[in-house]
Amino acid sequence: MNALASISLQRPASLDEAARLLAQDGACALGGGTDLLPNLRRGLGEPGLLVDLGGIPDFGACAIDADGALRIGAGMTLAAIAADARIRAGWPALATAAGLVAGPTHRLSATLGGNLCQDTRCVFYNQSDWWRSGNGYCLKYRGDTCHVVVKNDRCYATYHGDVAPALMVLGAEAEIAGPDGGGRCIPLADLFVEDGARRLTLAAGELLVAVHLPPAAGWRADYAKARVRDAVDFPLAGVAVALRREGERLTGLRVAITGTNSAPLQVSVDDFVGQPWSAELAAALGEAVRKQSNVLQTTVAAVKYRRRVLVRLTQHLAATLWAGVPAAA
Ligand SMILES: Cc1cc2nc3c(=O)[nH]c(=O)nc-3n(C[C@H](O)[C@H](O)[C@H](O)COP(=O)(O)OP(=O)(O)OC[C@H]3O[C@@H](n4cnc5c(N)ncnc54)[C@H](O)[C@@H]3O)c2cc1C
Q: pLDDT tens digit string along 262-314?
């Protein structure tokens, strides 16, 4: 890694000021910096201005309202989310996912906003500048060729965030602030684009302010991932499952995956609702996940392995949640 280039840094004291600064050409938000700074040290990006969001009052606040809904500020650290007694009690899948990100020291400074908005990854992108230049760079940055899918219609780098799928199966919405005091709430899935270079639907000057979760009553949910080094690694494949069961019938099912596509993906599984859990249903669920995922050679681990592990993790989580026993991560 190289030394960081000289970059201007501003630490706004309000959301309005942050949005105004982020609207400037070449400005980039800074959360805990655990994703952004290593990338910059590899020459991946040249922002003219870093906007440190850590000075905004209550940016990391977390509260439950009178209806039991949760609002988590984008500045809350993953360590705090994983340890928060209210989140562990009401939305344990979220605490699990946050606790499985990277290693303990990353989680102390890594924020929810940075985790959700993290860059996509690829074996042809997360390399030093001399490596990438020797390869003619790539479509995601500085080049005009995607080395993963040679069609060049878009960048196929993969999203590897752990927290997004857990939030998606819990029905999360993203609260976004923009310049001129503008704000909006969108389903979390709509924050992402299935394009490794574009990644997010945020416009210039917009930032993620918070995530809202409805009460999870009646749902059982969990998240699991496969990674090379258990102590500190991105998911090669990760899956969150939420299900509702009444007697011998599945009355609700949500599945979201990560590490496989350019965006976290909510898998379409509505057809399975109303059925009892069975070996046939497990096989069909595995097939649905396999078909809707798009695992490509964007990591050093083999595509076949990541596909298989994704299917098995999904089936295992769903079976364990159905049986009512919390699944081991
Ligand atoms: C060795 C290593 C292992 C890792 N393992 C994992 C892993 O297992 N799972 C995983 O999910 N991640 C992993 N990461 C990536 C990273 O550490 C985490 O995703 C972390 O949560 C990023 O949060 P941050 O606050 O540090 O983000 P930053 O690095 O500050 O920001 C990341 C991106 O989000 C943008 N951003 C930050 N906050 C906002 C906001 N509020 N609104 C809009 N945009 C914003 C930034 O501009 C930047 O583009 C790993 C990183 C390393 C170095």
A: 999 999 999 999 999 999 999 999 999 999 999 999 999 999 999 999 999 99
Residue 107 and residue 82 in contact, taking contact as beta carbons nearer than 8 Å: yes
| 35 Cα–ligand 1 center, Å | 4
* Ligand 1 pocket test target in 59, 115, 227 with most atoms within 8 Å of CB: 115
At residue 329 the predicted structure's pLDDT band, cuts being 50, 70 and 90, is very low
Ligand 1 probe mutation, 94, 101, 206, most atoms within 8 A of CB: 101
Q: Do 30 and 36 touch, CB atoms closer than 8 A?
A: yes
Ligand 1: lining residues by beta carbon, under 6 Å: 28-36, 38, 53, 74, 78, 101-102, 106, 110-111, 113-115, 117-119, 160-162, 207-208, 232-234
> Contact 91/220 with Cβ under 8 angstroms?
no
What stretches of 213-302 show up as alpha helix (H) in DSSP?
Answer: 279-292
How far is the C-alpha of 56 from the C-alpha of 41, rounded, in Å?
Answer: 26
Directed axis angle between helix 279-292 and helix 303-322, to 10°?
Answer: 140
Q: How many CA atoms lie within 13 A of 68 on its CB side?
A: 7
Q: What pTM did the predictor assign?
A: 0.97
Is the pLDDT assigned to residue 247 strictly greater than 50?
A: yes
Q: Measure the CA–CA gap between 139 and 125, rounded to whole angstroms.
A: 9
Cα–Cα distance measured from residue 164 to residue 77, given in angstroms and rounded to the nearest whole number = 15
Is residue 241 within 8 A of residue 222, CB to CB? The reply is yes
CB count within 10 Å of CB 235 equals 29
Residue 328 Cα, ligand 1 centroid: separation in angstroms?
25
Q: Which two tokens stand for residue 110?
A: 């890594």
Of ligand 1's atoms, which has the minimum distance to the CA of residue 77?
25
Average pLDDT of every residue of the chain: 95
